[in-house]
Write a structure and sequence with these properties.
Layout: H1 12-17, H2 20-38, E1 42-43, H3 44-54, H4 57-60, H5 71-77, H6 85-105, E2 109-111, E3 116-119, H7 134-152, H8 155-161
Antiparallel strand pairs: 1-3, 2-3
Helix pairs in contact: 2-6, 2-7, 3-6, 3-7
Length: 166
């Protein structure tokens, strides 16, 4: 485990919001949707965009409600909300890694030899939450991002559009 992620040293809010099980469920949903839409496994780097696009409310609230909005149009309309996006990615990177490890331990995600990430077709996380909760919003956006990434273009184009270097 990463030293900065020692569980007992985390603030209460971080332990709740960035819980590895919850983050793993979100990543699983994004990867599953991507794989179903593209008929390919998700490129590993794209997984690191899921949590940064979902957790900051100022970004999540601007994500389109319909899939017909283009990724580039959304970025142009929301460029001010994405000014510090590279810092958000850096902050959430260790939590994303932790969620991937957690999901792999429970056979929900797998990193393939070609560097792509797949989901276990038999895994279906059991989720119990209120329909009006922020957790449900995050889950819906994870599904949306999986769809969007599958229809947007290459990983390099997605990262470049967000102003993030691989």
């Amino acid at each position: 485990m990463l030293p900065e992620l020692v569980w007992k040293k985390r603030p209460f809010e971080i332990r709740n919001l960035l819980n590895p099980a919850f983050c793993a469920v979100l990543l699983h949903k994004a990867v599953k949707t991507y794989c179903e839409e593209s008929k390919q496994n998700m490129p590993y780097p794209l997984v690191f965009l899921v949590l940064p696009l979902i957790f900051p409310k100022k970004i999540r609230d601007t994500l389109p409600k319909r899939v017909d909005k283009s990724f580039n149009d959304w970025i142009q309309e929301n460029s001010l909300n994405l000014l510090d996006f590279d810092q958000i990615i850096r902050f959430l990177c260790p939590y994303t890694k932790e969620a991937i490890i957690f999901a792999m331990q429970f056979h929900c995600l797998e990193i393939e030899k070609d560097g792509h990430i797949s989901y276990d077709y038999l895994s279906k996380p059991t989720i119990i939450w209120n329909n009006d909760s922020e957790s449900v919003d995050c889950y819906k956006e994870a599904k949306f991002l999986g769809y969007w990434f599958a229809h947007t273009g290459t990983t390099a184009i997605i990262f470049k559009s967000l102003g993030v270097r691989l």
